[in-house]
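During the reporting period the student researcher (J.K.) took over the structure-prediction task from the postdoctoral fellow and processed the backlog of single-chain submissions. One of the processed entries is reproduced below for the supervisory committee.
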Amino acid sequence: MKHTSPLIFAVMLFSSMFSVSAFAETLEEAVATTVQNNPEILAEANRKYSVDKTVDQARAGYKPTVDLTLGIGFERAKNPSTSPDHSSLSRGEAEIRATQMLYDGFATKSAIEESLSNAEAAGYQVMGAAEKLSLGTVERYLDVLRREQLLKYTEDNLTQHNSLYDKVKLKADSGVGNYTDVAQTTGRLALAEANLLSAKGNLTDSKSRYIRYVGHEPEGLVDPIKTCCDDVPSTLDGALKIAFHEYPDILAAVSEHEASLAQQEGAKAPFHPQINLEASASLDNNIDGTRGQNKDALAMARLDYNLLNGGADKARLEQTKYLSEQALNRADGTIREAEKNVRLAWSNVDSLARRLPILEKRVQAAKLTRDAYSQQFTVGRRTLVDLLDTENELLAAQNAYTNVYFDHMYGCYWLSQTMGQLLKRLNVDVPEASIKVADKATIDEAK
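J.K. obtained the following structure tokens:
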């Protein structure tokens, strides 16, 4: 698919607007600001950092534990060593115990794999949030530019109506024209003024939406002449292939399924014995009614094996199987949704690219008609209605072209986002909390 917009025409059309001020902000800078400061992305990043800590928690299962127990109190005892009387003594206890897991049915290994997959999924979710919010920034950035350009056209239209009104009024006052034309021009002038107020209101609303995403007023925004349209894949299949391997939502769903498989493996651990190596030392004073100190030191290998717990472990294993199937179903749904979005974005860009040159011709024709009618009106060969209609036709043509121009530009960025490549194509650094997109297995392999 060839996406060649009428660039020269667009540059000429918008050249009077998009001069770079001392405080110019490029699209890339606006997106970078969003990625660094948007609270939704920061919230996702903090969630990712919290999930990272579950990996450390799981790895702790391979490390020894050391426990210290201290106790002091009063004991009243009666046993063969104190018979026939009771013994009342002040009792003290101290014990230190070290335990090293030797075998736990691969519970720790599974917990680590589950945590790593969840952390990977959380990283992709940070990337996904950054891509989506960046697309929102692109939309609002381009909308401000769009509204500024539409406002300029409306101002030009009002200027033309004011000039025409002055000419018609002068003719009527001098007796050459009639006041019916003045009344008609007055009505069209009022409409032009109303259009101007509407355009100003639309620009104000657009700036408010921009502030919501970027966090500051839009100032000196620059028309991004080089856009994602320059790097659009040549085929729809090419775009889909990129999306299946790089779209963050797909990668996150695959990682979540991998986490569910690890969880399922971990649920098998209770069916295995647990073997620990334990070493302990204790110092007790006045215990069991016997005055004096008792010292013990132990080094033991212990095996614990649950024989019956009411079927809870079996039910837990069955539960994890269903959870794994659920994660797979969600991944499949995510893949289908991603494919739908790529196809929609591709079709949108293709359709708009075809409309641009047609609308360009309409603008050029409207300009030529307006200029010709203006000259013919001066010599009485065109009516006032003809001339007023050409002014409105030119405004309508300019507005239509501008809307499709910016829609097409946004569509290219949208297509890049559906492939998971928006930040890459904008040369904006990904959030620190996200992970580098790896060359994941194909969707069939993931299934």
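The committee noted the following: Residues 107-173 form the longest helix (67 residues).
J.K. will present the remaining backlog at the next meeting.
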